[in-house]
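Need tokens for this chain, all 566 residues.
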Amino acid sequence: MRMSTDSDRDEAVARDTIAAAIAAGVTVFDTARSYGRDGAELGHNERLLAGALLDRGAGTRARVVTKGGMTRPGGAWIPDGRAKALQRDCEASLAALGGLPIDLYLIHAPDPRTPWRTSVRALGRLLDQRLVRRVGLSNVNRRQLDEALELVPISAVEVALGPHDDRALRGGIIERCDELGIAVIAHSPFGGPRRAGGLARRGPLDEVAHAIGATPAEVALAWLLDLSPVVVPIPGARRPETARSIVRAAALTLGPGARTLLGQAFGGIRRTRPEQPSPSSQHGDLVLVMGIPGAGKTLVSSQYAGRGYVRLNRDERGGTLRELADALETELSAGVRHIVLDNTYLTRASRSYVIEAATRHGIAARCVWLDTPLVNAQVNLVERMLEQFGSLPAPDELRKLARRHAGVLAPTSQMRTARELEPPSADEGFASVETIEFVRRPAPDEARPGVFVAGAALERSGWEHALEQGDRHAPHLVFDWSPDGTPDALNPAIMKLARQVAGPVEGALCPHSGGPPTCWCRPPLPGLPLAFARAYDLDPARSTLIGTGPAHRNLAAALGARYVAA
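Here are the structure tokens for all 566 residues:
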């Protein structure tokens, strides 16, 4: 990759490096259409590789792995998993490779804007068209792998894996591939250019390297190769001597002592499930409460804390989930046997630390998953901010508050957690997984109904009939979104509505820019109706929302309000 992406790249050295790899017997070469400095250089690395292979007469022996579905606007890395994008990228890669066949074609990374199944089915069509020999995935989690396997024969998975990065091990990707015989291409085995120099400071690597007469980097590669026959590390050599070192690493044999030392330091594949103590025999209870921000974890964990459980929560303690796992180990070592942890715990990898600690101390770990839909979690977060700050923070203020206050997030941050969530499973090592579906608590009896009217609804003919479905004596809100607009822009709509109802009428406008939402007041996010409901002691679930389409219907569903189409 860096042969093409680095600002100081040297193509002559790059060709010499490829030549050295060929001479040393390397036959698998990893590239991607996106490997270049920016969008103007798409295909640079593929052309460089093809030229070097053909110059050395290695075209027939080489197995080319390339990737598509990644754009490079201004040098950024933006996934594009649309079917037409993958088709276009594959055809462009074939042209850049100058006649060399594509042995393995990978989706570069999941695109959060495209349904995952759409992208995977596009891979299947490339197989059907015989444009590529095999297909695979890159930078995925276990859930995405399992979903893909239902649709297409996956031959390989490319993930970050090495002494600096064990997420694929902890997340079950390597375990699943080992079980099914799917090749694992381990990219960035040295941790990337910034961390590669620190390998020698990883004690076990240095100790084994001295014992067998190798370099720490070669030992790291040998450890990866020893994990499973399916693992193939690709260090990304930039110099001929590095390419030759990679081949030396493949010839290393690790003895039992080295395997044990490296396994204890960096992990391994779990081929047997840890035996969990039965509920009747265990002498304690460790409960992991998980869910996206706004799911309601605090309420559930507080109930456990009220029963005497020690509560471990990153919002209160600060630090990382890994540091929280260290705090858990400290509590267990001190003899504490009833503990509740409540954090997002989005991934199998993040949850694995808790399960390992519980297993070491002979306590069964239970998972309580608050399966709260995103729209309901959004309502919870907004209500929490209104209670804490009294109003909706503007984008700049929201960013500042998010740095100082736990549980304060921008909409995009919460949406990202929903995308990244891997649902928990007993096969992670939990004694049980309890799923709690979301149920909103009823509002106080004194709360009254209101009417929320989308500004666009008042421009529809027949809006007066829709208005009759609500309580004309209730408080009415006209809400809208107009980038860079002013509240005065709603005055005509407010006056139009006020002539038809007996209750108070107010307007609320989101003036913030388009693109990914940076505020909670932009419809169909629930900020404006909830702020109005708080000001007038309204019960959104007893209220009516008058709108014009699916976005307003979804907003009404999130609020629990009755939806009426204008």
